[in-house]
Amino acid sequence: MNELLPRTDCRTEIVFDTETSTATYDPATRTLWHGMHIQPRPCFSEAFLRDALELHNQIRRGRWPVNFYVLRSEVPKVFNLGGDLNMLRGYAVKKDWAGVSRYARLCVDTLYGMISGFEQQVISIAEISGDALGGGFEAALACDFMIAEKGAKLGFPEVLFNLFPGMGAFSLLARKLGPQMAQRMILSGAMYQPEVLQAQGLLDEVAEPGQGHLAVQNFIRSTQKRLQGYKGLMEARRRTALWTTHQELVQVVEHWAECVKQVSERDLRLIERLVSAQTRLRPSEDTGGLGGVPDIPQIIARRPAPILRPTVPSVAPFMVRASG
After folding, report:
1. What's the CATH number for 13-300?
2. Most buried by CB count within 10 Å: which residue of 25, 28, 73, 246?
3. Where are the domains of the chain?
4. Taking the model in full, what pTM does it have?
5. How many C-beta atoms lie closer than 10 Å to residue 313's C-beta?
């Protein structure tokens, strides 16, 4: 079992605890810290998604008064490696397309909790203390704010095995960076450094290695002074045509599930190699934890990260989404 990171600080209490997740609550700041510790690979297993949905439903029902929700990892050097490729490969080999669709829907339902502010105007923050790939990056993008540590890698490797990230990547990136930049990032299959993404305005802050948790705490502390303004803007944004709807996510992920049916034997072999590389991750003496995720572009094909050039978003910024 991989060595886990400490869980927040002594002021918090554990309010939700499963084999995949532990949530602690800080009543002073009304912050719920959601720590991921998924085994045997730090990726989005069905068990984790069901646990996360249950936690999100409790927030939505108002079990705790929550102003801030922080998604973080308790696995050193890794935020999340994305979709459960081992499970996906198994479904594809057995041609269990209903299983693929069920898993895809679980993913978007989980992400939409953060996108919607849990229908409680909760501000969500991704604490990216390690590599965020594929669905892991999508989960971070679903948050209102992203704070990453230097040395982390972020990207979408799916195109390298003939798929695309279907759980919100284009929808969220296109709104935050513009459609052309979103397309360029996704089709490159490249890994990006946090400093590059911060320069493009995608990341809100880049912290020194090991300082991501402190940076999030400081962000919460400073935001509390203008909390109603932040909450008001986040909710106003959700009511515009700029923001992502649950219906849009479902339509895209249904198309993604259809694309899974087209994966070839070669693609499945590449997925198997990635699963093997992920499974071999073990704590290393020099880092005190995991040595980082495998270099996915190196496993499959060496591709340099393209230069991201700003583009003009194609959605008018002040169009208000019609109700109903």
Report:
1. 3.90.226.10
2. 73
3. 13-300
4. 0.86
5. 17
